[in-house]
Design a protein that fits this description.
homodimer; three-stranded mixed sheet; Neurolysin, domain 3; 2 domains; 21 helices; mainly alpha
Chain lengths: 528, 528
């Protein structure tokens, strides 16, 4: 080999080694980021346990100290996340991301964290404290207003909250509507414009469809569900159903709380709760399946990615799609109850031996416009959400005044659901969200239902005899499909990418509309 | 007034104001310390909840992540406690303490925190990590050795632990024996010399007293306790007893765990656990009373002092005195069972209707030398502790070798208890403490029993008809006495001051000896 060739080879070596050197430095930085995120996630998991305990087992008088423990932990997390060292690290990695130097997985981590970090940095500590103080007070005042059924009690606080949320939007920045800066917290990349289009399609379908149902004059007897159901047996059956659809009790728990919820500390410790009603067994079953749906998502996240966005659920909308899919598309379907109705009869023979599966199926699927969102059926639920979305968007954009809320609420309820609101408690004051400053949260419920229908439709087309499987008490293939197409990806893909990979197209209202049309067309004997 | 007088007055004012200025600065510093301590305590409470959950409700697979969450929290607490800002603050306050500028309460806070802080500062991070890693591994190895009943499996790890604990003593510093640096963690100010004197007195009494009992040839039938006791009923009764002696369920919980324990997150959230044995109801009752005794102490600490040493239990010895007093001096006494035995009979009529109170009382107080410390009676318990104290002191002082432990253990057991140890599992490997690096912990059990007898004797002399009250199911005056004399003081006084204020003299073995002599003299019909 000539001297020149040798020198050239040396040069290549040097260049190669410089590149490798750079890559090692980058890998080191990325490892440091992962270690810091893991620590933050463990601290957040600890916070989540404090919350879970607060809702389930904490003694009455423990509340005051618990609130302080929670705020101490929140301050630790905030300080670590916005520390100069963390800022330096994430800023450096972000510049490497922008240069295209990161692989797909690393890019996802840095992109997601950078987004959260930038948002957090834009909000001054005093602003966060003011908001947190205001909403903490507002919670009590809202509860009092609801008890008194008097919106005027809540009005000044709500005005203050909206002022702060508009300020938040200004601080964070947005395109088009300030509402976009808020919905982004719950459903990244979602915009008021896109949501409006989907919701408009839904409204144009649901309002006339509901009228059709009402004019069908079909009378569904829901009184048949009423009874006296032993709580112990309800618990046992709910547990059995959760286990059968795939909830892993070695990696989770099942408890009771006033408001059912799911808390995933990590994929190997995911806890659901439900509530029991002595007079009706269905609410406990239904809410168990709903929470189990959330929990299956959390248990399906990859343990090895725990601590990074790759090991986190994609968005609230996707999360609600998982609970909604199991609760409604599976748990309120005829195939599901073909399997479970005999079992229900074994638990409560004195009650269900007199009732046919068909009558039971219709009773649990009755469509009836009602005042309370959380008690609404599949058809009217979307209208409740639509109403809230329109109002909160207008509030944040400043096109309506807080003082006019009760009137607007009642008017829209009549327009969409055809019923009169008798008082504020069952009207504008029914939900906790706004008192906590959660604007932009409501749409995720409906977005979730749309995703659910689209996912289920895809799963049905890909799994041979899915409904026969369900009717046979087999849920493994469906869960596997959800795991493979949704759960294991964490935040690797955006919602758009995720749904396109799983179903072949972006989110569309059509699957939900088709599902509702078919199911309720059959139940109510509508002409199609 | 003359010009001179006016000038003098001005000077006084100036001096006074300079003093006040100084005092304000000092008060500010002290407030900052309290705020930092409160935050640290809330973080420690969060850690305690993670531990509680781990022992009670955590699903099986949650263990791995939980360990990481716990270590993340521990690191946060350590970093905050040893931060340069914290060091500056506590050092400044310590110099004011040394100058005598602090009031009694402030002085207590600064003195106690300074002590903990100095100890923590003397231990390098690498040392703490090595110790924590070694003991974490040692725990599994000890468990394996115990399962195999083979000390040689555990030996190398124990040697390593003792090497580290001796190093710890060197780093921390000590007078006379390195053991003093270790016992100090559990029982501040206690020394091996003092403990040795007390334990020697005890040994000189217990060994011949046990021989007397054995030669009394009195046969107590403990088989009468055996039965088939419904766990639900055991739970109900245990709960009732805990409540009756003063455990406040609005400020606490009662659950089940493999090893009973008490966890006080704050005075308004104190949780106890117990375990149930289907064949015998007494262990559950007894361990409930023991834990309730700990819990009454925790619930009796002042809420307003939460976060500072003024709101913390004095020492492990004092803590054990509270559990021991309720478990033994109250819960194994005849007056106590005069009240509770009829109630026990209502819960388990098929069992206890055939047995007299006298026979029951004797059965639960049987004295029988046995191999396992945690199953020992009041008379032999002290001998189990004595044996461990002598051995661990010699180990740390280097006068015996780890390799000789089984032989020494077995020899001492025969000497003190008169029984042969059949295997390591029921001998030197029975306790978890050493595998966790807890040297100096064992003596606090006996110190607690001595305090308990001394406190109870004082309470009896100060409360008119205490035993009649107990026989009537009234525990309020006793609890009030404990609250007033012990609980509310937190760490304000040293153990010596505390016991002297409450009982008129320093800790003495005489009350325990008198108590045992009288009680067991009666049960075994011994001549006095």
């Amino acid at each position: 080999m000539s001297a020149v060739a040798l020198a050239e080879e040396d040069e290549v070596r040097v260049r190669f080694s410089a590149l490798r050197q750079k890559q090692f430095v980058l890998m080191d930085k990325f490892s440091e980021l992962k270690a810091r995120l893991l620590e933050l996630t463990h601290l957040s998991s600890s916070t989540a346990l404090l919350h879970w305990d607060l809702e389930t087992y904490m003694p009455k008088r423990g509340a005051a100290a618990r609130a302080r423990s929670l705020s101490s932990l929140a301050a630790v997390i905030h300080d670590k996340f916005t520390s100069p060292e963390f800022e330096k690290l994430i800023t450096e990695l972000k510049s490497n991301l922008d240069k295209g130097l990161l692989g797909e997985a690393e890019a996802c981590v840095v992109r997601e964290i950078w987004r959260d970090f930038s948002r957090e940095k834009k909000l001054p500590r005093e602003f966060i404290e003011e908001l947190s103080l205001t909403t903490a007070e507002a919670h009590h005042i809202w509860a009092e207003a609801r008890r008194k059924s008097d919106f005027s009690v809540f009005r000044p606080k709500l005005e203050k909250i909206i002022e702060l949320k508009r300020k938040e939007a200004e601080l964070v920045g947005y395109k088009n509507s300030p509402y976009n800066a808020l919905i982004d917290v719950y459903e990244k990349d979602a915009t008021a414009e896109e949501v409006s289009i989907l919701f408009e399609e839904l409204k144009n379908f649901l309002v006339p469809f509901l009228k059709k149902i009402e004019s069908s004059k079909k009378n569904i007897d829901t009184e048949i569900l009423k009874g006296d159901y032993d709580i112990g047996k309800q618990r046992e059956l709910s547990r059995e159903i959760a286990e059968k659809i795939g909830f892993d009790f070695e990696k989770g728990r099942f408890d009771e709380s006033t408001h059912p919820f799911t808390s995933g500390f990590n994929p190997e410790d995911v806890r659901i709760t439900t509530r029991f009603d002595k007079r009706d067994v269905f609410p406990a079953i239904s809410s168990t399946i709903h929470e189990a749906g959330h929990a299956l998502y959390e248990q399906g996240l990859k343990v090895k990615h725990f601590g990074t966005p790759l090991g986190e659920s994609r968005s609230l909308g996707i999360h609600e799609s998982q609970s909604g899919l199991w609760e409604n598309l599976v748990g309120k379907s005829l195939p599901f109850w073909k399997y479970w109705y005999p079992r229900l009869g074994e638990f409560f023979p004195e009650h269900f031996s007199k009732i046919s599966l068909g009558d039971f199926y219709k009773a649990i699927n009755v469509v009836r416009p009602s005042l309370i969102r959380t008690e609404a059926d599949e058809v009217t639920y979307g209208l409740h959400v639509l109403l809230r979305f329109e109002i909160e968007k207008d509030l944040i954009e400043g096109s309506i005044e807080v003082g006019d809320l009760p009137e607007i609420w009642n008017q829209k309820t009549e327009e969409l659901l055809g019923i009169k609101v008798p008082d504020d408690a069952r009207g504008v004051l029914q939900d906790v969200h706004w008192s906590g400053g959660s604007f932009g949260y409501f749409p995720t419920y409906t977005i979730g239902n749309l995703y659910a229908a689209q996912f289920y439709s895809a799963a049905k087309s890909q799994i041979l005899d899915l409904e026969e499987e369900i009717a046979g008490g087999q849920f493994g293939h469906l869960l596997e499909w959800l795991r493979k197409n949704i759960h294991i990806h964490g935040k690797l893909y955006s919602q758009d990418e995720l749904v396109t990979r799983a179903t072949g197209e972006k989110l569309s209202s059509k699957y939900f509309i088709d599902y509702i049309t078919k199911k309720y067309g059959e139940i109510y004997g509508l002409k199609t």
